[in-house]
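Hey, sorry to bother you again with one of my protein questions. A protein chain has come my way and I'm curious about its shape. I'm sending you its amino acid sequence along with the backbone structure tokens. I owe you a coffee for this, so here goes:
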Amino acid sequence: MTYTPTTWAQRLLGLLGVPVTDANVKAMVAWQKAEGGHWNNPDKYNPLNTTQSMPGAVATNSHGVKAYTSWDQGLTATVKTLTNGLYSGILDALRRGDSAESVVGAVTRSPWGTKTISLDGSTYNPKDIPGVTPALDVPVPGLGGGIDLQSLMVTGAVLLGGVVLVVLGMVRGTAPVRQAVEQKATAAAGAVV
């Protein structure tokens, strides 16, 4: 089978189990254009330029983006990547299926690496979407990811020996990140008290 950007987007959405709506297809086609995979670079069968390892896939650049051996393999790799736990914002927007802008906004705020997407003559990045601020990721040892500093708020401060200790609380974020911050805050509070 040979795919076009539209038919590939439709197939991917179906494999993800999200609605195949006009908004979702439009967003996925715009994302493919921003990435340039398959049709505009050597990343065969990989329109979104994922780095997911698969048997026989070869890296095409220093970031580890892969060229896959078939459309099926590329689709499987893309599904594995999008469902690995790091892209819940994208999946949530796709599940709603009612706004291409929400999907591309979620993509530009995600760790995927696509930071600018053109849609209907407009260019989207986190600062262009009303009510959205770009994520500032801070690596958290042992979590393999980061904490979005925009998700934290100061909930208290303690003066200890001339040093102000700031206590942060989560406003939003994934359960593992919230749990990690809560554990660190509890440990810090226990050490101070």
About this structure: Residues 181 and 187 are 10 Å apart (CA to CA). The longest strand covers residues 152-160. Strands lie at 58-59, 66-67, 117-119, 122-124, 137-140, 145-148, 152-160, 163-170.
